[in-house]
Design brief:
The protein has 586 residues and is an all-alpha fold. It has a domain of 87 residues. It contains 34 helices and no strands. Helix 15 packs antiparallel against helix 16 and helix 21 runs antiparallel to helix 22. The longest helix is centred in the C-terminal third of the chain and has 15 residues. The protein is elongated. The N terminus and C terminus are likely disordered. Pfam families: PPR, PPR_1, PPR_2, PPR_long. It comes from Sesamum calycinum. This is Pentatricopeptide repeat-containing protein, chloroplastic.
């Protein structure tokens, strides 16, 4: 047989028949395949072709599969077909695994079609795994339903895939079916289900699964117990997570970080630091993720002292040069307002990435080092460093401060080329930049191009119109914002009051002040009352302004009196202005 003759003679390249059907397969790579080396060095003798029929071909096919060389494997498979060389079940298994690795659904389906009737159970499970890995849940479910005899592995594969893919109802439906069968769900199924419970709506079913785990006797297993704690954390029940954590007989680093993440998400940053201290005291291995969470908690608490102690531990462990630790350090110091220490931490990072650069640029921007920001940005572009949306956001903020339309528009164009304008926060920064540069036309173009503008974007556009005297346009946008269902925040209403002030819309402003809390859930602050004082005073309603100063639920500050005094001086009714003691403004 041509194929067999070729492969049996492959140990002697001089005997290679150039006219063989397999000569189109590149043989130069054969010597690079470990399986061929082992075969060549073995003591097996090729006594007769029949004893070795298809063995070497299948070895080579498996080797190609293990290297994820699907194209070459497919060509070789077709050549085996032409030469009537049988394909071993294990070869199909390795081919399906390669399809899973490369997410090659089409080739995976071809392999599935070749298996014929009643293939071995391990092959059907490989097919099932391939469909799940390729994200083809319909094909996976069809293959599962058509299985003659399902093993526990079959159930684990399909339930885990549904759970990981967010198809919780399908996963639970199959879980209930396995409960009614003769099979017993193993820990892997429970862990996969627990991972899929991602918010408070899943808490009830999560508790039921927890009870099932206890009944099945799968507790006192660190992976299972950690999954239970993680489920409670994601479902927002930190108390149950904490109780489960304390009852764990064995904890690993993942168990500890699970609790730290939960505390951080719940803004319980003191508890995050307490867990970190316990980890240190119990000599638990600390990794980059632990330090990242801890530094985030220190920044949230503005606790630079503890953060510096954590920094000292990082130095002691020799992790300061690692980008995964150095970047959170930079971010921590920036958020604490210590840009000098942030800069020093940045300099020690051996290979800063785009997140590192973004953090330090944010720091420079915060302290007004705008020219330095632009210099660094230009240097990064010239070096071909990968830039992210946060770097551009910082540059847009710098251009806002400078009112530098030319450089800002260039940065905008550069961001478009890099595909970084689809991020809401960056687009909002662009709107603010163009508005501060007085280019409301550009700001409006960015705003209209957004797919579902958020609160920040709407507020930026309203504020831009308000502060450039386009009060009616600002209020029209505010009404559109209300109709769109996007929530307002305190800054939104400051912009609205600014528009009302410019347009002299006293009654409308008063209605907004009264409806803030009732209709929009935004509690008025002193800033909002000062805006209202300014609106009354600009309209010459000084008595109403003074009444508001005396009746508002805040003590008037210097700004309250400043806006009143300035407007009082510009009115005909100077007598009220003279009644105010000048000491109020000192």
């Amino acid at each position: 047989m041509a194929g067999l003759q070729f492969l049996n003679s492959a140990f002697s390249q001089s005997s290679l028949p150039h006219t063989d059907k397999l000569s189109n397969i590149r043989t130069a790579n054969y010597t690079q395949i470990p399986s061929w080396v082992s075969l060549k060095s073995s003591n097996l003798s090729l006594k007769t072709p029949d004893m070795q029929h298809g063995k070497l071909e299948n070895v080579h096919l498996v080797s190609l599969s293990r290297q994820d060389k699907l194209k070459e494997a497919h060509e070789f498979l077709l050549e085996m077909d032409r030469c009537n060389v049988p394909v071993a079940p294990q070869s199909y298994k390795h081919l399906l695994e390669a399809c899973s690795n490369l997410r090659s659904l089409d080739f995976g389906k071809l392999i599935h079609q070749r298996l014929g009737k009643d293939p071995p159970a391990f092959l059907v499970n490989s097919v099932l795994q391939m469909y799940c890995d390729c994200g083809s849940f319909d094909d996976a479910r069809k293959a599962f339903d058509e299985m003659g005899q399902r093993t526990l592995v079959s159930w684990v594969i399909i339930i885990s895939a549904y759970a990981d893919g967010g198809l919780l109802e399908d996963a639970l439906e199959l879980f209930l079916r396995i409960q009614d069968s003769d099979l017993k769900a193993n820990p892997s199924i429970y862990i996969s289900l627990l991972k899929s419970f991602v918010d408070s709506s899943c808490l009830g079913i999560g508790k039921q699964i927890h009870c099932q785990v206890i009944k099945a006797g799968y507790t006192n297993n660190v992976a299972m117990d950690t999954s239970i704690c993680n489920m409670y954390v994601k479902c927002g029940n930190l108390e149950s997570a904490s109780l489960g954590f304390d009852l764990m007989q064995e904890k690993n680093a993942v168990s500890w970080t699970t609790m730290m993440v939960g505390c951080t998400q719940a803004d319980r940053h003191e508890d995050t630091l307490e867990y970190f201290k316990r980890m240190v005291n119990e000599d638990v291995g600390l990794d980059e993720f632990v330090f990242s969470i801890t530094l985030k908690a220190c920044a949230a608490l503005d606790d630079q002292k503890v953060g510096e102690q954590v920094h000292g531990l990082i130095v002691k462990l020799g992790l300061e040069n690692e980008v995964s630790v150095g970047t959170p350090l930079v971010d921590f110091y920036v958020k604490c307002g210590d840009v000098e220490s942030a800069s020093q931490a940045f300099e020690r990072i051996s290979e800063p990435n785009d997140v590192s650069w973004s953090a330090i640029l944010t720091g420079y921007s915060q302290i007004g080092e705008f020219e330095k920001c632009i210099k660094v940005f230009k240097s990064l572009r010239s070096q071909g460093v990968v830039l992210n949306e946060f770097i551009y956001t910082s540059i847009f903020q710098v251009c806002s401060a400078f009112a530098d339309f030319n450089f800002g528009s260039q940065a905008h164009g550069d961001a478009i080329k890099r595909g970084l304008v689809s991020y809401l926060y960056g687009e909002s920064a662009m709107i603010i930049m163009y508005a501060k540069c007085g280019r409301l036309d550009y700001a409006y173009q960015v705003f209209k191009s957004m797919d579902g503008p958020d609160t920040v974007a709407w507020t930026a556009m309203i504020a831009g119109c308000a502060y450039h005297g386009k009060a009616l346009e600002a209020l029209s946008l505010f009404r559109e914002m209300q109709a769109s269902g996007v929530s307002m925040n305190a800054v939104t209403f400051v912009a609205v009051f600014a528009a009302c002030s410019h347009a002299g819309l006293v009654e409308e402003a008063n209605r907004y002040l009264e409806s803030m809390s009732r209709e929009h859930g935004v509690e008025p602050t002193l800033d909002h009352y000062n805006c209202m004082i300014d609106i009354y005073s600009r309209a010459g309603l000084l008595n109403e302004a003074l009444d508001l100063i005396n009746s508002m639920p805040f003590e008037p500050d210097a700004m309250s009196w400043k806006v009143y005094w300035e407007d009082a001086q510009s009115t005909v009714n100077m007598s009220l202005g003279k009644l105010l003691p000048r000491s109020s403004f000192n």
